[in-house]
Every structure is written in structure tokens, then in C-alpha cells.
Fold each of these.
Amino acid sequence: MSKVRVRFAPSPTGPLHIGGVRTALYNYLFARKTGGTYILRIEDTDRTRYVEGAEKYILESLKWCGLNPDESVEKEGDYGPYRQSDRKGMYVQYAEQLVESGHAYYAFDTPEELDKMREDLKTPEDPSPKYNYATRGKMKNSLSLSKETVQKMMNEGVAYVIRLLVEPGQEIHFNDIVRGAVSFKSEELDDKVLLKTDKMPTYHMANIVDDHFMEISHVIRGEEWLPSTPTHVLLYRFLGWEDTMPAFCHLPLILKPDGKGKLSKRYGAKVGIPVFPMNWESDTDFFIGFKEQGFLPEAMINFLAFLGWNPGTEQEIFNNEDLIQAFDLERINKSGARFDIQKARWFNQQYIMQTNDARLAELVRPYVEAEGHKPSEEYLQKVCVLMKERFEVLTEFWGNSKYFFEDVSEYDNQKVIRKKWKPENREKMHDLKSTVNRLRIFTAENIEEHVKKFIEENELSFGEVLPFIRLAVSGTTKGPSIFEIMSIIGEDEVAKRLEKGFEDFDKIKESLKNS
Ligand code: GLU
């Protein structure tokens, strides 16, 4: 195989959908696996769909995901420029070359005339007739008009486009790495516009010229581009480039969780799940992103890798290196992949649990600081060690861990106070607090040993004591070992909270009795 060169070629028409990230990922993995080159090319020739800020969003998202291209608008290689609008001048000659060789033609139809044709020729069987072998004779183009008329119109500066001439009666075959042999009948195609009136190329023209000159070996892209591929094959053929035409690999669709239909941004917004890597905010739209929802980029990448590919084993956790080793285009599935946010959360939790304490502390710090606390590095790391298994996304860290950083203001289990708190034990509870406060070695084991000893010696039961220590110290009856929590919070703070908690329980019990 000649040297692998692949490209991810997004159009800056809005935020980069998660399906686009998956396309970038598969390109990246394939390039890394084969020692090839992974290129980012910005396809911005459709100025009507251009969205301000989208290119920046694409670049930032790829950085966050760790999918850094070898060649791109930010890292020029030998095949630049890497933004199609900066290559504008390169395409016209190939469109003209196709006209000269009889594979394309000039068309002068105005948008109104095109609309009229579609209106006049539409039938119930064919509601949107194509500009093709059957209709082009009725339109204003260099095939239907005389040479003189064409020349005259050109001289007068009448606006024209260049269209590909697709003759009927041919079968266009190509091989797809995922789908195998694919063929289209040429009658199914239309005479696609290659060059627009402003001399900008369309996607088809620019894509083929660029893939050729950038020496792309494999086109790995979403399934929605499969119907364009026969047109592309014809372009390679007519330009005389068929022998170096890239291999095609069309990735399966990403479907909604129920498998019914594509995972769209509207759907994501409706059910509140992220379908973009990062938040996207424009004058008209706001969409949530994986990053801001508390996902780690490596977890999202691992999750995305499995949306359409599997390694053929039971293993699910693959770091970047593992993915590169295991990835294989041949193992990409044909059928659509269901997007399951619960699975994404599961992956995230696995990565949180694997993350080293220093990095995890760094990741959760912004959430703690947003609440007005600035814990020391050492303290935050201790909390992370204890809480690691208790949150699936980073955004859940604060809710589950706030008692490490601030006083308890509410108790989440009123029932246990009503049923089990015994004001008559107050004296003993007070002694317990003093015992705990006096401990010279404030480790979880030592606290546990002394608390249990105290319970036994004072003929109390665990149920009368432990839930209340927990509630007083953390405000909740859920969570990791209370002795571990106490050891982190420290003896003075624990003593203060026990004192306040016991007082509060008396009051709560009293008020519940009266209500
Ligand atoms: N610009 C196209 C897109 O937005 C690229 C399709 C392709 O990879 O050929 O997805």
C-alpha cells in the first residue's frame, strides 16, 4: 500500500457534531496505526452556509479530544493551503478541463428557471426532477443552445455554472471498505454543479481536486456521503486520476438511543443529552457539550470508538494507545450505531476511577472554586481518593462532596431522625463527641475503633449512633466510610459539626412531634 494519508474535512456550517468527531477519530486512529498522516481540511466553499465561529469551534474541539492533525490550517504541511477558500484559484482549470474533454458543460439557467423546471416536470412519482440526461435538453446550457448563442452569452457576461455531464446507461462501481462492492446506475445521478457562478467550486469539485493533490489514500467519512461517491468516481475518471483514486470507507450512521432515526442536534436538545463535544453558543442557538457536562475527553473518545467499531473481544476500556493498536477499518460495522448516553457515563466513570489523584483534583477544582472554596492540593486529593467511585461525570462531584468543603446546612434523612434519634441519649452523645475530639491519632481506623468501643461501653446500639454521626458530619446517610470522611475533615471541624448536629436533631425531632 502506498503511504497512508487521510483527511477529516468538516465544513464550518455550525458546531462539530459528535458524528464528525467520530469520523475524525477513525481517520486519526487509522493514520496512527499505519504510520500515516492525518490531515484536517476546512471545506468552506459554500459561503451561504458558512457560520462565524464554526472553524474555531472545530479546531478547539479537536484539541480537547486530543485528535491533533499532522497537517492543518494551524500546522501547514507540504500540501497547503488547508482551507478551501484559500485554494479558490486552483479549481477553475479542472472544471474547464472537463468542459474541454466533453465531460462537463456550461449552464446558464437562473434560479427562477430551475424552479420552474422542477415545478413543470414534477410528477407524483418524481416530485423533485433532476437536472440530468432527461431534462438538460429543455434547459439553457451549452448542450442545448447553439455554439454561437453560447459564445454570445459568454461575451455578454451572462452568469453560468459548470455542470458534470453524466450519460445514462452506465453502471458505476466502486469498492467500499465497510460495504464491499457498491454500484450505482448513472441514471440515478444528476448533472451536479461543479463550479458556481462566482467561480467557487462546489463540494464535489473541490473535494476531488483536493483529495487528489493532497494525495489522500483513504476517504473515511460518514455514510451520508455514499450517494455522492459515484459522482466522485466519475470525476476521478474524467480527470484522468482514477488510478490514484483513494479507497472509500463510509461509516455507519449514529442513531438515537431507540434506533429510530439519526441522532440530531434537535433531538439532543429535546432530551437534554450532549451531541457536541463542547458547548456551542451563537446568537440563535445554544447546545450543551460533553466537556461542560463533565466528561473526560479520553472517556468520550473511548465511547465514540465503539459507536460503529468493535475490537472483537470483550474488552471495552481502551486508552489512546490501545485504540491505535486494536483499530482496524475492516471491523467497522455496516449497521447504524445507537447512541446510549448511559454507556457514555459508564465509560466516564471508569476513566474517573483510573485517573490519578493529582489530575482528578485538577479536574474537579473548578467546580469547588465556583462554589467559593479554595482547598489545598493535598486536601482536594484526599477527597478525590475517597470519592472517586461516587460520580459518573465531573459535574456530580460537588453535589456528592460538598460537605468536605462547607458546613452542613441540611439533613437529607428526616425519617431516621424522627424514628431513631433519642434525645435521652444526648448526654452520652456529647461524651462521644468529646471522645472523638480527644483522639490524638485522627485516622479512620482509630476513630472507628474508639467510636465502636464507646458504643459498647455505653450500651448503645450502632443504629442509635452511627447514622447520626454521619448525618451531623455530612448531612446525608449516603456516602463512603464515615470514619474516612471524619479523618479528612479533621477533629475540630468534626467536633463542631457533631455538636451542632445533635442540637439540630433535638429540634427537628421536637418539631416533627408537634407537626
Ligand atoms: N465537507 C464534507 C463534510 O462536511 C466532507 C465530506 C467528505 O469527507 O468528503 O462532511
Amino acid sequence: MNVFKFGGASVKDAAGVQNLAGIVQDQGKGTVIVVSAMGKMTNALEELVRAYVSQKPAETEEHLLAIRAYHEQIIHELTGNFDRVYQTLDNLSNYLKKAPASTYDEVYDQIVSLGEIMSTQIVAAYLAELGVPTHWADARQLIATDTTFREGQVDWEETNRRISHAVPKNAVTVTQGFIGQTPDGRTTTLGREGSDYTAAIFAYCLNAKSVTIWKDVPGVLNADPKWFDETVLLEKITYQDAIELAYYGATVIHPKTIKPLQNKGIPLYVRSFIKPEAPGTVIGNYEQHLLIPSFIFKINQVLISLHPTDFSFIAEDNLSRIFGRFAQAGVKINLMQNTAISFSVVVDNNPDRVPDLLELLKQDFRVSYNQGLELITIRYYDQSTIDRVLVNKRLLLEQKSRYTVQLVVKDLG
Ligand code: ASP
Ligand code: MG
């Protein structure tokens, strides 16, 4: 059997759902379809959480209405029985009537997860309407995680036990990406863009023949066309290269996706839902690594520099304190570099997390930071590609390993 994953862009409107159905109908029963929240609904739900937790009833209501209207619009353009979607919207509305009763991250997961619940309820109802034997599976009851809200760590053994019984052979299974559940039944999410990872978890547990991620790009490109004019489609990529590219921030695949597939040698296809007949990219066991440079571009970066306030050096004791603070604030490090008396770290400038991190760090260090930066990573670089990307940029920090260079820059244009 095969696992298909459809991201938010592929189901952003009724036409997207119809297109998905077209792709799925050609497949055999037993296929598992993992679907993300529709369009930008995860962002919209995040805004809703922010308004709700800060107890702003008017704003909360406004976000809720927009989310409701968006889903209703899609439903109106499709046929099917969508009662369960209305039920989910009502449940959400009731939940918001009570005051927030747990931590921000826990509330976040209870609310944001509903984006995936609704998208799959719509997709499943529509497929059923078309006469496709459809099984809606609740991923919360299948993906077992710990209680790390917003970044749930998967309990593989338990998840494996559950998933191996959960997929009927005589139907197409439709399930949610991105979500799971703690042992005591509270919903968790697996980290933003985590639906790819869910697809890999299902594939691993079911010993799938392949995973296909359907995207709005022709496959994995050597750079994001949003930032680069001349991009090249990579037809074949090794697991190793794919992990590295994803790790450094190539957003086309979630970084946790590859390892489980590599362990079982399950190929991962990345294909265009706009042009489903095109072959796209396949990631698998190949001898040959990439032959051309690949670029990963991240904006909105902040470079944080730490200096001990006493005369100590940046050595093991200070480093372990620093890493502890980052873990405590839930901030991921994109790049780091140290000298004897300073430690520099580049992170995404996440407004939910970075201000708290800075406060924590200021307890032990003199902290300076530089915002509005870009982080450019080039895998399989050479000097001419470096020179090319540095045109009109000021270089603040550079780090080279054998295959990868990372450049922290300020745009001068
Ligand atoms: N809907 C979630 C997000 O946007 C998960 C995903 O799309 O993979 O982060
Ligand atoms: Mg999404």
C-alpha cells in the first residue's frame, strides 16, 4: 500500500478538494491519505489561540467567524454530508466560551489541531459522496506522543501497535497530519509543518511501498523559486542529502520525515498536484550525491551574541547553561559559533519564544542581538556560488563544513 500526503495548499479551496479526489480515485483501496489543515488555516487558528488566551473576546469572535466562513465556503461548493464539520465548529465555539484552563502550548494544541480535523472531515465526506469507500481515521487515537505540547515526541512502539490494526484494506483511509495524543488523552501537535512526518510514521508502521507528498511545486528544487530565478528540479536525491536539505530549512519536506523512511528503505516521492502526471522527485538509496549546489534561504533571522558577565570563557559549563536556556524556551538553533569570550547563535525570530529566551539569557550573560537578518545555506557550494549570493549583502557570519556553507547576512538593497 501507499501513503499520500496532501498539504494545506492542495486543499485550499473546493477545486483543490476535487483535484485531490481525482488523484486518489486512480489509486487502489488500502491507500492512506494524510491531509493538512486547509490553506492558511493553521495560521488563522494560531491567531485565534493568541486572542483567546489573552482574553480578547471581540478578537476571538472575529477569528472564529473567519475560520467558520472559510470552511463553510468550501463546503458550499462541494456535495456531501458535512454534519461532522459543523459539529467540530460548534465544539470549538463552545470550548472558547470557557476561560483558558491550561498552559498556552496545551491550549494551542487543543485548538490548532482542529484545522486538520475539519480538513479531513471535508475530504472524507466528499470522497464518500463520490462513491469511494472511505474510512476516516482519528490520528489522535493512533499517534501516541508524550506531553510536549506543540512538539509532541512520538512513542513509536505504542504508535506502531495502534496503526498496524487501524487501516482497513477495503477502503481509502483519510487521516490528519500533524496531530497526536498524550497517554491521558490530550491532543498534541508534532511541530509546524508536521504532516509530512505523520505520513512517514504511517508508512513506517504499515511497511508501505512508498510515500508521496503532493505539492504545489514540481518536486524538490535546488532552491525556492520565491527567492531564486533559476531553479533546477532534482530528480533523484539520496536520503542523506534530503535530510541535510530539510534540516537546514528547505521547507519542501519536514526534517523528521526522512529518517523513518530511510530505516525501512521506503522511497519518498515529491510530486505536483497541479501536474499529477509528472514524475517529480524521488528520494531513496542512491550512490550519487547531488551534483549541483542547493540553496536554502531563511528570512527573519536574529543573531544573538552572548558574553559572560564575569571573566569566564565560553567553555563547557557556560555552554551547557546556554543550551539549557534554549531548550527551556523551546527555541531551535539554526547556526552557532563561539570564540573564547562570546557565543553567537542564529534563530528564527519567533515572537512567541524569542523575547522569553532573551530574558532567560540575560540572567547569566550580557546579550546583544541583531534582527532582520537572512540565513543562506548552500549545500555543495563553491566560491562562485558564494560570491553570487553575497551580491548586495553584508556578511556577518560564515560557517563552512566540507559540503555545506552557511552565511548570515544583512540585505543592503
Ligand atoms: N497544518 C500544519 C501546519 O501548517 C501542519 C502541516 O501543514 O504540515 O503547520
Ligand atoms: Mg500547513
Amino acid sequence: MNRITIAIDGFSSCGKSTLARQLAQHLGYAYIDSGAMYRAVALYVMENGLVKDGRLDLDGLLGQLDGIDIRFQHDPMTDKSATLLNGRNVESEIRTMDVSNHVTLVSPVPEVRAKLVRLQQALGLEKGVVMDGRDIGTVVFPDAEVKLFMTARPEVRAQRRYHELQMKGAAVSLAEVEANIRQRDLDDTTRKADPLTKAPDAVVIDNSDITAEEQFRKALDIVVDVLARVGQE
Ligand code: DC
């Protein structure tokens, strides 16, 4: 059977990774979380004195960029893929609010994007991948056979993310979470390098008022149609 590439883009905290994981598991494909890579670079600058008074030391980052090694490895403890930053498992550290607040310092840097896009393209070379992010259908895999663009109302996303963070025991307020989401929406859509935009051939899924199961069925129907089509080519 022909293997395809599935690109999932959309706003922060839209459930992209939940859907991407479900599809990958169902199809026996690899799931790749491109946001984890940007988060890992953010953690790197935070840990290496490259953020001063909330500002990025750009020259410092560019000087060290080649030495930042990011890869994924299966973690037998969680039975999930873990993000490694220079060989260290940073999977839980990159999910904190502190890292979320620093990502937009590094995600607009063209050199950072170029490095991570190259890595993402290499990971998708064999097809049979589901990758989620902001520029997957537009920049990373413009020829992806399936492109989904996910969205939901900001207040719905904030409530879901707040719930997730509470389950992890994080001491954050709903207002703080919603402010972070709105700021990232603005940064993602207005940055010069590879801003978040819907690819013309992407299918929009607004999940504000549907369940994860309904969303999965909707996406799977799209994938099955495309698989039937490419199977006949
Ligand atoms: O999907 P996420 O929230 O884990 O992504 C973290 C940040 O990385 C988010 O603020 C936007 C950025 N990002 C990006 O610029 N390009 C991508 N392909 C994926 C994420």
C-alpha cells in the first residue's frame, strides 16, 4: 500500500498532537511533533545564558546553533517518543509554561527555522509520517498528500490547556494560559519567517464544538479517501 505524508497545522493548543498521534497509531505511521523541536531550542537558550532581561542573545544563539542536537528516541518508560536535546531527555521540561513563554523568542529566527525544517524534512523522507506544527503543509512538506488545518476558539483552547496543566500539578491561572495562547497566536501568524497560514489545499477542522472522537473520524475519512486515490495512481 502507498504510504503518504500527513501535515497537520494550526493554532496553539488545538489538539493537533492528539489527532496526529491517533492517525499515526491507526495507520502504523510515525508521529513527529515539530513544536517539540522549537521548544527544545527555547530550553537551550534558557539554560545557556542566552536570554537576558527577557531578550534573546541572537549572536550567541547563532554562534552555538550548529552545536544544538535535537532528535527523537523511543522512551520505554512512557512507550512514547521523547525529545533529546544534546543527548538529554527533555520531554517533560519542554512542556512547562516557562518554555512556552520563551518559544516565541527563537521560533521567528530564520536560521533556527531553516535548521529545524531540514531536520523535519529528513525525518519525513520515507513518507508514512504524520507531522504537526505551524508550517508543515506550507513549508516543510508542501507536497503532502493530506493537509489539515486545525482551529478552535481561543477560550476553548485555553480551558483545555489549563485542564492539562492542572492535571500535571502546574500552578498557573486560566487567565495566564489564555494570555499565552493569544500571544502565541499573534506571534505565529505575524512573524516574517514561515508564519502560520492555511495552505490553499488544506482542509479546515474547527474542533471547538466536536469531540476528539468525532474529529478523528472526520480526519480519517479524509485520509482514507486520499489513500484510495493514491492507491489507484
Ligand atoms: O505545537 P507547540 O505549541 O508545542 O509549539 C511550540 C511553539 O513552537 C509554538 O509557539 C510555535 C512554534 N512552532 C513553530 O513555529 N513551527 C512549527 N512547525 C511548530 C511549532
Amino acid sequence: MNSTRPSGKANIITTRNKNMERSDYNGNLRLKDAGRKVTLVGWVSNRRRLGAIEFIDLRDTSGIVQLYVGNPDAIPDVRNEYVVQVKGEVRAKEVPNPNLPTGEIEVVVEELILVNKAENPPFIIADKTDALEETRLAYRYLDLRRPIMQKRLRLRAQTVKIFHDFLDENGFTEVETPILNLATPEGARDYIVPSRLHHGRFYALPQSPQLFKQLLMIGGMERYYQVARCFRDEDLRADRQPEFTQVDIECSFLDQDQILTLMEQALAKLFKETINYDVPLPLRRMKYWDAMDKYGSDKPDTRFDLFLIDLKQLFANCSFPGFQGNGYLKGLVIPGKGKETSRKKLDELSMEAKKFGIKTLYSLKFNEGALNGSFTKFLDEESQKGIISSLGLKEDDLLLFAYSEDRRQIDFGLGALRSLFAKEMGLIEPGTYDLLWVVDFPMFDPVEGQPGLYSAEHHPFTRPRDEDLPLLDSDPGEVLAYAYDIIINGYECGGGTLRIYDRDIQWKIFNLLGLSDEDVARKFGWFIDAFKYGAPPHGGIAFGLDRLCMILSGTDNIRDVEAFPKNLQAVDPMSKAPGEVSEDALEEVGISITDHE
Ligand code: ASP
């Protein structure tokens, strides 16, 4: 963008209507208004000259109305995005425009006042745009003039209001928690803020209000919520922003089932009131390992039937040396994709699976009643027959399969291919919604390449299932937790857990996560000590507001539902944030930069 200083000459266009008189919003006018005198304001969205007359589309926040100008030479010369005020009379159109809600009428202009001029915008301000997203973000204020963007922001506001109303009706109190504090361990990198008064010490922006909401429970609040801004310095994706909003909830004395039941009612209300969709309750509850086994994901998109298959038995007599261990051998049958899946395509699929740690992706094709492919040499006739009949292979089916010692690796790898084919083959019907809970998550995730070391699958405050407590000593990897995620169309739209309320167990979990006693005392002593004073059983959830709005808006880009998002490099293309700060400002907080970008 090229910012130049305005010339000294004042460019006052009109001062006639300082108070911007207006009788109606443009988008609200209908046939019943015919004959009324109206005063409208807005932006010129389009101008068409037809011989001696002219049509102008006038846009405001409510929509577009067509203006009819019978004497174009008598009004100021206006162009797209000029701000104008018009006075005129509403009349029925001879030929209605079915594409506009106001299409049955037009306003015959009697007076048009130019309020402000506009430069030619860098892209056309209309719902359909081929402007690059980077350009849209650099001129976000113009992008936000597009009706579809305003619709999305309104839906977002409505979503927040529905949560406020629902939670209020159910006895929850909104409480704000600090933005400047110590780190919350949600598993991401922190955004840190230096302290002017304490050089060498830093606040961390909250990854979530987790610790505070638990302390509110110990503080006796019983039902808390907050529409909370959270910050995580992670690599960005289409569905992830560095700052995002959670509808964060915590309650005491409710068990997992009670929490899920209450929360799914909130979601049903949300879907009904925003997009008039009836969510069938109760929602399905799928166990983590069932989701992984069958869908290859802990956020399964169950809108299409393509399932991971355990091939261990069917390949029992396979002579391939790589399959002889105790690992997992699983596959995916892709119907009708045999012929068109070239060597190159298979290489691409292998690359995708590799991202999840799968070393080699194997394939067989089924044509004219037989398996084809170089792998057939490792399968005797009996095995081949078994595979064909058990999998119910049909002409031109493609069987993809892989082997791994790591259960999560094989599931995630094949799960990624499952999603890829679903998109490619159009297996998902647009406008359908699939909501379910995934429950019974493992408590821990093994740290790759470091046997015996774990990270928390949700976060360290998650309560292990009562029956699994003994496993904490013998086999932590097998411990399941009271943890649940809400999955909508394959997106994780929220997650929560019951919390540990016993100080000793909390301490032990920290130890299992690799923190020494000194670390626990130093980092979490302030928090864990609160558990000495009668912590109630409690649990909660946080909904990802941005993702929910993204789904309700029918977009797959989270930036579409945020007014001023960052791009994938975590930069705001409009202000160019993050920016440099002066040497003085750095000195004040005791920082010197040695490695400039
Ligand atoms: N703090 C958790 C998160 O941000 C949610 C929860 O456990 O309530 O994912």
C-alpha cells in the first residue's frame, strides 16, 4: 500500500447534511413501501447508464437497493464506493429482480448529495470475488464491506449471544481472568510479554484460562464461563489463528455425562437458532480408540463410509519380510480408483502418509477377478482369495495398506488418506452436519523416540478414569481419562475434561510428564497448593468459537469469520504487525536484540 500525505488543500465536498438524516435501511425496503418518500445513505456499489437514464445500486449494512436516476446530468458524478445520501420515492419495479431481497422496488431519486469520494478500490466489493486473500486482508475494511463478510460477523455475534443466553439461563456467571500471567500448559508455544518492572521476567499470554477457571471452582463459583481470547504461538493452518476465542466453561459437582448433556443442548440451540438445523440429541459418544481404529482420526468425519480395515488376519500368510513383526497392518479400500491411480499419484499418497510416520504405502488393484500389483508375489493364492472375498472387492477397487509398530501412526496416516479421497471423490454432501463426542481419550501421548516419556493428550489437569488409577504406576500409556472432544464435520470444535481435584494425584501426573518435584513446586506450586483447601470435583469444556462460526458459515477458512485475522505467516497484512519497537522501548524492558530478521 502506498500511503502519501494528503495535499494541504481541504477537500470539503458537502457540509449540508451533518447529521446524516436517514429514514430507512436500504435492504429493508419492500413492495409495501411503494409510494413512500425515503432518505437513504450508503456506498455506491454499481452504476449503469442506459441512454438517458441511470441505475445506481446503493449499499448499506442491511443490503442493496436500486436507485433510478431520470436526470443523470443533474446529479453529482458518482463512482463506486462514493458515499452518498439520496432522497426519493419508492416505486414498484416493472420487472422485478429476483436476485435481490429489494428486487421488487426501486427508489426514484429526487436529490443526491455526495458525502465523500473514494479512490478506485483494489477489488470489486461484492460477495463473489477473485481477489487474492492477501489483498483482501491488506484492505480488510473494504473486504468487510462485502455483504457476505458482514453476514458472517453477525452470525458470530449471534453465536456469542446464544451462548451467553444459554449459560445465563443455566446458572453460569461470566468471570474475566488475567491476560498477563504465567504460562498455561496447553501444549503450544507461549506468546510472551516482557516486564518493565522486572527485567528478565515475562508474562505469558493465556493459551486458555484453564488454571484460573479451576481456581474459580475452588473459589466456590460452581458455574463459570467466559468468552475468552486465547493465544498460541503455533504453526498456522486454514483452521487455526494465533489468537482465537473460546467459550470457556467450568462447573463443579457435575459428572461427565451431565456436562456433555448440558453442552450438547447449547449446541442444538446454536444450530437451530443460527442455521435452523435440528441437531438430533443425544449426540453419539465414540470412544477414542474406536474412532482411531475405524476412521484413523480422533476427530472423525463420519459423513462418509470409508473405513480403515485391520488386515493382520488376512495377511497372516504373507511372506513379505517387512510385515513379520508385532505391529499394525491396516488398509483402506478405495472404490473404483484402481485404474486412474497412477504411479505418480501413489507416490503423492505415500508422501502424505509419510507425514504421519508411515514408511511405505503399499497398493494392490482388483481387476477382472484378480489382485494386481507387484505385492501379489508375497501372497499365496489362498490369501489372495481371502482378501478378495473378505474385503468384498469390486472391479477397479484400489487397496492401500501399510505397516507400522505404532498404533497412532498407522491410524493417523491412513486416516489422512481417507479424508483426501473423500474430498477428491466428493463423498461429502454439502450442507450436512455431523456432530459427535469423542470420549475416553488416553491420558498420555508417548513422546516419539523417548520411551517412558509422555506428554499430556489434553492437558495435565485431566483426571484419569478411576478404574485406571493403578495403571499410573504400571502402564501409564494405557491410562484413559475423563476427556471429551466435540467433533463437527471432522473438526474439533471444543474439548474438555473432568479435572483432578486431589493434590497428590495432580503432583504425580506432573512427575509422569517429566517435571521433577522442584519443577512442580516452582512452576505450579501456587496452583497446586489451592487443592489443599477442599477442591470440589469439577470439570469443563472450551468451545472454539472461531471454528464453530466457520462451520455455521459454510466456509473452511477461519479467517473468514474474524474481522481482522493474521495471514499464515502470523502477520497482519494491513498494519504489518508484528512491528519493530524502538531501542528505547527495548531498553526499558531490558531486552537487546542480537538477531534481527
Ligand atoms: N483448557 C482446555 C483447552 O483450551 C479446555 C478445557 O479443558 O476446558 O483446550
